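The passage that follows is intended for readers who have already worked through the single-chain material. We present the inputs for a multi-component assembly, then the predicted structure in tokenized form, and finally a short commentary. You are encouraged to pause after the input and sketch how you expect the pieces to fit together before reading on.
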Amino acid sequence: MGSARSSLPWLRHLSAHVHEHALRIGVVLSIALGVLTACVDLAAPTTPSVQVHAGAKFEMSCPSNVTVEQCTALQDAIANLKNSGDAFCSSLGSTIEGRFNRNEIVYDPNTSYYGYVYGNGDSNIYLGPIAFGPGELANTLAHEESHLSLGYEDSHNGSSNDAYAAGDRCAGSI
Ligand SMILES: [Zn+2]
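Having made your guess, compare it with the prediction:
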């Protein structure tokens, strides 16, 4: 254990030093992350009953389990449809607005679909979390409304009674 060992203390010292340095960075990072986590926690809807009703724009007809931001997005999408220069889409928007005012827009946080309807007497439009992604809300609403009020189908072929065509037509630039 001669020459090989003589170089080890320096390596160990260096290693220990680096380790100590890394530990300090780790502590600083942990503190920073701790603060960041706390901020994220504050922003998250951990107390929906308080947070959801805190916004000025929140209305009684907002789905009970959405955030203020989600309901604002929902109202904006409905307004955009209603104000569309395309009479077909504007008509769908007015019908959807009526549904919104009757609390028939329902948020289903557990579905993997953009949205769905049952029809057959159930007048609700159910929206999933991904419907609230960028550019998806107006498309999903128009799609589902065309099922409910016009009897459109998911034919995927762009025909005159295709719910996908209706969604794409009305979402357009929204
Ligand atoms: Zn469909």
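Commentary: Helices lie at 3-6, 8-43, 48-51, 68-82, 87-101, 137-150, 163-171. The chain has a mean pLDDT of 75. How closely did your sketch match?
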